From TrEMBL, chain A:
Catalysed reaction equations from the record: S-sulfanyl-L-cysteinyl-[protein] + uridine(34) in tRNA + AH2 + ATP = 2-thiouridine(34) in tRNA + L-cysteinyl-[protein] + A + AMP + diphosphate + H(+)
HAMAP family from the UniProt entry: tRNA_thiouridyl_MnmA
Protein encoded by which gene: mnmA
Positions of disulphide bridges: 127-224
Membership in a protein family: Belongs to the MnmA/TRMU family.
Species: Caenispirillum bisanense
Domain spans labelled tRNA-specific 2-thiouridylase MnmA-like central: 243-297
InterPro entries reported in the protein's UniProt record: MnmA-like, MnmA-like_C, MnmA-like_central, MnmA-like_central_sf, Rossmann-like_a/b/a_fold
Main location: cytoplasm
Function according to Swiss-Prot or TrEMBL: Catalyzes the 2-thiolation of uridine at the wobble position (U34) of tRNA, leading to the formation of s(2)U34.
Protein name as annotated: tRNA-specific 2-thiouridylase MnmA
From TrEMBL, chain B:
Keyword Iron among UniProt keywords: yes
Entry similarity comment: Belongs to the class-V pyridoxal-phosphate-dependent aminotransferase family. NifS/IscS subfamily.
Name of the protein this chain belongs to: Cysteine desulfurase
Organism, as annotated: Caenispirillum bisanense
Principal EC category: transferase
Lineage: Bacteria, Pseudomonadati, Pseudomonadota, Alphaproteobacteria, Rhodospirillales
Amino acid sequence: MTTAVLPDAPDVAALDLDIAPSRPPAETRVVVAMSGGVDSSVTAALLAERGYDVVGITMQLYDHGAAIARANACCAGKDIHDARRVAAAIGIPHYVVDYEGTFLGDVMEKFADSYVSGETPVPCVLCNQTVKFRDLLTAARDLGAVALATGHYVRRQRGADGRSELWRGADPAKDQSYFLFATTREQLDFVRFPLGGLSKDQTRALAHRYALPTADKAESQDICFVPDGDYARVVEKLRPGATRPGDIVHVDGTVLGRHEGIIHYTVGQRRGLDIGGTADRLYVVRVEATTNRVIVGPREALGRESFRIRDLNWIGEGTAPDAAGVRCVVKIRNSFRPAAATVLSAGEGAAEVRLDEPVHGVAPGQACVLYDGDRVLGGGWIVRDRTA
Amino acid sequence: MTRPVHYLDHNATAPIRPEAAEAVMQALRDGGNPSSVHALGRRARMVVEDAREAVAALVNARPEQVIFTSGGTEADALALRGCGRPRAVASAVEHSAVLRGHPDVAVCPVTPDGVLDLAALETLLAEAQADGQVVVSVMLANNETGVVQPVKEAARLAHAHGALVHCDAVQGPGRIFTDVHALRVDLLSLSAHKIGGPPGVGALVATDPVAVQPLFAGGQERGKRAGTENVPGLAGFAAAARVVAAGWREEAARLATLRDRLEAGIRARQPAAVIWGAGAARLPNTTCVGLPGVTAQTQLMALDLAGVAVSAGAACSSGKVGPSHVLLAMGAGEAQAREAIRVSLGWTTTEGDVDAFLAAWAPLAARAAA
């Protein structure tokens, strides 16, 4: 047992699960999105222990036969089995719902199209935005649930104006707010994140206390439908023939070599640039779908002071960032150290992000998430412009 | 977790009848291998031959025409593979046990009401040069819609073209007249658990059993089906068959009344609900109802949480619910084929069960896209 190295399980009774305070738990149905991992297992167990009418649902998202089976990637066949075992262990009904069709159209194909157009997509955001908080949320409402709970490490808080706000998870190492920036206010009113105030170790300790079959399960780090990390193979399968070799060109115009398809490149990337004979360290500065070129340059060429985002989801004050601009810190990828910036409205659903200091690796297709301290103000998708 | 269950899934499996359960238990306690020479063996043999008589009587066959199997699926496989015909023609709404029960199956379409298209069958038979080459498989009634198939007419056509005829009749006994001679088929599949017997037992009724080749060798069932007989299962099959044979007409009338109450309730709650196959002759116990804009999987979950057990389309082993191949064959769109659930009544069903379904279904019906 690994229990010895874990902290004591947190005082569960003191946790505010924030479901529906005015109703008796036994008459309060909560649907839990159960992936088969330890986080959602503990979420379900916590709610069941409090006496809620908990219903576990696992989403079947893609054909496991097509993806390479691997034990620690989410949503594989084994995960459905694990979720079912956990539900049986804690004594709640459990169902598997088939969202393969919508997942293919709303997540996998968009992921492939994004790469083909020279972007670097974030499919987990699309999944949360569509199958999870649109389709599963609708199913939860149809089942008479008052809330949909997930095992995400983010917090939902009530603002001074009574509206639901999204906050970073209390454990900075596990915070998943980057992947949930597109959550709307309406969705926030219905979803719950009971683990948002816990650390991963505390969750594991709880899993052991509940003796859940998934207590020692390894973390899944991959994109679930790319279990082996070979995303290019997935893109080529979904969009056959969409990738072809082309030139690698220096920002000064010199052709430096050839590439095997732009889908293999991401802005800011250095590894895998097979260019001999250049004295400087070179980075991918731009990926051009129209000319099928990968533009490279020295690190200085990567710096950006501003960029635009589209499909802005704004859950800060008001209905959009005001014209004068809102001060915030931004993350342009999940592992990014937040940078100070000002965000300004830029027309319908768009915004401009002006950084206090230039940052490197602003990749079109990635999400830019806006924060006020720990509070998520919203975010959008980084748009390519004339120079990037 | 114990919730009260209103079991409306008799086409999947019927709750075991008390007479059958008792017979199974007795045979389990008695033991014995029917092939043994000793007294225990002889007693077990009596149970098997008694079951053969009871099952033969259920469908107006002679006992020697009954070959016991592990269930409907094996009976279908034995019929289709054991009949010696290199090609098969099956209706598009057959159970997957039939559609996948022969290596070469040509699929015959059905009408929008889910009835085998006889003209299309005749064309297929003519093109197939069926004489001595083809086995035609047509179910007695569809498990999802309850639509009764024109088996006798199909058999007449098939025989005229020199084809053999198999009928998957597992949904028939207890609900409609099921008579191997009246149907004029050569091979007929039965299943014990669909009539309140135990699971894991079935039969193939063959008008000429000598012509059936076994799937594997062993010697039991006059060489037609290898493996030690499932004596307790057969005892239960016999008990259920006798109860059904004695009282099925009254029971079918009772079920039809309940079914009419169910369908009137459905129509009253959502006029836009689609009752599939409503224009065709149907089993008295089966209603396949589609609710526009509400997926079957949502309906199944909501009903289950309310303690009402029904089923839908093609549930795979993971528990996910795919579109119904039966409804697709009837011309349903992909979405429609994912919106239908099957409510199937049986010997345990009461008005209270039907009303419980309607009460649990009403909120879903109210949400449907009319």
